[in-house]
Amino acid sequence: MKQRHPITCLLYLAGTAAVPMLWLHPVVLAESVILLVLVNGLLDGGRQMKRNLGMMLILAAMFLLINPLFSHRGRIVLFTLWENPVTLESVVYGGLLALSLLSVLLAFLAGNVYLDADKWMYLFSRAAQKTTFALLLCMREIPVLRQRARQLHAVHRLKYKEERGGLRRRISRGARELGALVSWSLEDALLAAQSMRARGYGLHRKRTFYFPYRFRREDALLCGFFVLTGAALLYLRLSGGLVFSVYPRMDSILWGVKPATACLLYGCYLITPVWLELEEWQKWRCFK
Question: How many helices (DSSP H) and strands (DSSP E) are in the chain?
Answer without folding.
Answer: 10, 2
